[in-house]
Amino acid sequence: MQFEFQKGIIFKKVIDSIKDLVKETNLSVSSDGLSLQAMDSAHVSLIEINLLDSVRISCAKDTVIGINMENICKILRILDLDSFLTVDLIKNRLHFKSGVDERKTEFSVPLMDVEMDRHEIPEFTYPNKLQINSSEFNKIVGNMKELGSDLTIRLKGTTVDFWIDTDISGSLTLTDTRFVIEEEIEQLFSLKFLNMFCKATPLSDAVILEMGSGFPLRLSFIISDADYVKFYLAPKVED
Questions:
Q1: Domain residue spans in the chain?
Q2: What residues form DSSP beta bridges with 229?
Q3: What is the C-alpha to C-alpha distance for residues 4 and 106, in angstroms, rounded to an integer?
């Protein structure tokens, strides 16, 4: 089994986006790409990743590899990721190679035996869909996190309100006629998790925010037509 990125930095950005949420996980490798469905360590949020356009895969059969995120991150920090990145599975070890003839780097780590259920994510049809500049959303979440632990998101008409209610209370409102808001809704979410999801900001210029009654919040960072990182988070129930 082998997979190769022409630009290894893409794989690093994907790993960086989830390293604070999962410590060990399984990565599925097949002709359909690299995929991952996992819950965070606290079993609060769900992560869905698919990579196909940015990676070339050679495998005789579908393979599931268990990885330790801390070890992978250490290796990716050392490798030259502006060039290609090749990952081979050889005798229960993952071998990472990067660089060109003048400067090559190679490291390996053992596979992990990660016992976890694969979380099949149902097809949700959301009534509300908003595309927001990812850097702006990251800034909103970061600023609000300095003021409190929970964020209320209100959707109405063509506006979205990001509201915080602590000793310091207030809101930030975005208005865009391109927002698709078919259901007025107000839900409360953990800023801790929203802030961790924003680690995916470098992957995409925009984040797609989807909400609806009875659905978890979905945040999608679209890398290409077939490549994405998505996060799901259930709203909090106020006492």
A1: 2-99, 128-233
A2: 49, 221
A3: 14
